[in-house]
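User: Can you help me understand a structure? I only have the sequence.
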Amino acid sequence: MPISNINYKMIIQSDKPKCFCGIFGIFGTPLASVKTYYGLHALQHRGQEATGIVTQVFNERGKSVFKVVKGEGLVSEVYSDIGILKKTLTGNSAIGHNRYSTTGSSESEKNIQPFVVNYRLGNLAVAHNGNLTNAKQLREELINEGAIFQTTSDTEVILHLIARSKLDDQIEQIREALSKIEGAYCLTILTDDKLIAARDSRGFRPLAIGKSDGAFIIASETCAFDILSAQFIREVKPGEIIIIDDEAIQSGEEKSVLIQSQYTPQKQCVFEYIYFSRPDSFIFGHNVDKIRRRLGKILAKKYPVSDKDGDKVIVISVPDSSNTCAIGYQKQLEKQGINSRIEIGLIRSHYIGRTFIQPGQEKREIGVRIKFNIVKGVLEGRTVVVVDDSIVRGTTSKQLVSLIKEAKPKAIHLRISSPPIKYPCYYGMDFPSREELIANKYNDIKGIEKFLEVDSLEYLTKEEMLEAVAEAGEENFCTACFSGEYPTQVDLNFKKEIYEL
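Assistant: Let's start by predicting it. Here is the structure, written out as tokens:
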């Protein structure tokens, strides 16, 4: 086949769970689109497939209109022309979204959020982070009632439920719609005169409220406030709807209502602490950095490594999500009297973009070499402890071990700050099928250890992991991907491909 006919656009097969999405909203500033751009830039780690911004503005006739710019790629790529932010996306309020597809085809531009509709009560735009577990059922019911869907995303179900409500109050329409959906969701909703935020009653995903020069901000993580020098106010409570309008700007206080009156036990995603959220964010009542250091500390307490000859142990992380965990691990080894040092043994390239040319199956390891390189002088002749947060398929971990072996270390020990991943997630993490998960391919950790060709491999148990987050309440976390104990009713046969066009 001629080389020009081969499609070389391929996404790197990561050994990590894919992130869900990042959402942002702002109300009360003429710089709404610019601040949304920077907020989305800070949330880029939550989704790199596509991004979108919607702003609200009044035209020359005094009519409210929504301006929309969306596209595939990173925030800096889609909004590389500053004129888009300053001339096209005008207005005092905006919402934005960074996408990684967990339902809905990643190949369809129609699935790029925020979604915008015009219905009997005006304009409405929605950005969503999470997964709805009853979306298939609701979608079928809505189609049978005559609804026409434009996308294959579960988020569009929310728009239809709001637009088809017979209630006359917009907040009550939203409240009614949210009472019908199940699963994980954080939302920013833009109307002609309001910014609305909502978080599901179990609080699976983080969502925070901030302020900047009198304007209110909503974001998936507080790191989006830091880039704007904004003040963190509080987290959106599970099951809470936040309403921000002109009255809130004048009073300086947001309004809120509950989706439902009855209490629902919280089930926050523990993977937000382990991997997804940035270490400089504050989520679920605690600093991510502090929790990750605790994970590393417990990992070292339970599974220490020493050099057989009494030499210094070298601790390295798989950058970047494991950096602070590795620091916690090494500090604890030191406390236990084990001669050790934290080092940068792997260098990660931040400039590979979303895709790369992968010339044939036999050279698949090029993906790891593009992303990582070793510092041979740090690793040669040393007992090396590699600290990582998780293993999904095991393919990247195996290639990393092979790469580290080129430095001729004395020994390689792998330490994982979470339990083995054995079950799919229905709340927004995009794992491969259960059959592809390495923890299901082997009966025990020794089998994985042998496959990876390391001198030893240890994971935290579920109980040890929860010990690290105990301050936030062990019972408040969802651990379904480790235990198979789902906090809601789920369709175990669900596959995201049912939504694909």
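Now, to help you interpret it: The first strand starts at residue 10 and ends at 11. Residues 1-13, 102-106, 354-363, 497-501 have pLDDT under 50 and may be disordered. Let me know which part you'd like to focus on.
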